[in-house]
Amino acid sequence: MQNVADIGARVLNPSGRAHGTAKAGGAASARAFAAACVLLLAASAALAGWAPLGLSVATVFIFAGPHNWAELRFFITRLPVRLGRSRLFFATAAVGVVGLTTGYAALSLAPGSAAWSEGRWYLTLAVWNTLAIAWVVALVVVRGRQSRRRRWEWALPAGCALVSLNWLAPQAFAFALVYAHPLVALWFLDRQLRLSRRGWSRAYRACLALLPVALAVLWWRLASTPSLADDGAVAFRIVQHAGAGMLTGVSTHLLVSTHVFLETLHYGVWLVGVPLAAGAGLLPWRAAGVPLVRHRDGWPRLIRLLLAAGAFVVVTLWLCFLADYATTRDVYFTVAMAHVLAEVPFLLRTV
Amino acid sequence: MRLFKYPAALALLLFVAASPAFADIALPNPKPNRVSEVRTDLPFSRMTIERVDGLAEVRLQIPRSQLSRMSAAAGLEEPPTRSGMMNGASTAVAGVFLSLAVVLTGVLLVRSRRRGAAVGRAAAALVVCATVAGLGVVAAYANAGLPPPGSTAQNPGTLIKAASKQPLKGSIRIEVVEDGTEIKLLVPAKSQWSGDDEE
Question: Residue A201's CB: how many other CB atoms inside 10 A?
Answer without folding.
Answer: 20
